Sequence to fold (305 residues):
Amino acid sequence: MKKFILSSLLVLGLVSAVSARPLRVTTTPTDLAALTRTLGGDRVDVFSLSRPLQDVHFLDATPGMIVRINRSDLFIENGFDLEMGWVPEVIRETRNRSVRPGGPGHVNASNGIQAIQIPERIHRDMGDVHPSGNPHYTLDPIIAQQAARNIVNGLIRVDPEHAELYRANLEAFISRSEEVVNAWVEKFEPHAGSQLIIYHKHFDYMLERIGLVVADSIEPLPGLAPSARHVAELIRRHSPETVSMVIMEPWHDQRVGRQVADGVGVPLLVLCPTVGSCEGAEDLISLFETNARKLLDVLEAAEGE
Ligand SMILES: [Zn+2]
Fold:
């Protein structure tokens, strides 16, 4: 009995220590770190394992990541295989059972989201980094509402005392994202159906939301560098009559993006792929707005010519 009381007290002591200090949360992309800050406010101390200008597809597991996860109350991953090259190793090495899949401290933010572009045949051996469909759902704050629900469920599991706060922040995120995104969707109505060429399939959820259409990709498969022949074929196939611009991420080879854009005769636009990658892109909603503004400026400039 004495033993039981002692262990109960220890458990209680641990619980109150957790609720007194901010929760330690670790995420894989900066987008989910920002979303967790939006939802957790002062209750969370969030660390992103990637930096804003790193392509999360191609990180390597490091001892520092394992140390970070060992000390975390919550670990949030993007899912849809975005981190398949490194997160499984980090999880395997951690001593912290709670943050492993199935544990109370683990969140797969993609749960309940319907991925687009699920391949009929998986080309992983050829370097396809989207074998479970497109993992870049955080670019569309409306789709990211489901990720926000998953994160809030995780926060409540490890910190039930502040459930009310997390739920209120979730509601605020949902209504703000509806309001902002709907206003932008309206602004893009005159351009609905406009086509463009992309480098990697990174912005597709966002483009779909605002009614723009992807005509072609510079990467023949997600993650696979283009051959000279593929680039020549894109230039042969397109003109300013078929596409309005080429868009790309800052971490891909801009000489190739420039070559395609010049060859086709349209502008090249480098967008902001993650929260923190451009000034003003501080959370998921301002990231969406920053990219929407850049796209609309190019479309309106082309119209004015
Ligand atoms: Zn990708």
Notes: The mean pLDDT is 93. Residues 19-180 form a domain with the Rossmann fold fold (CATH 3.40.50.1980). The chain is about 45% helix and 10% strand.
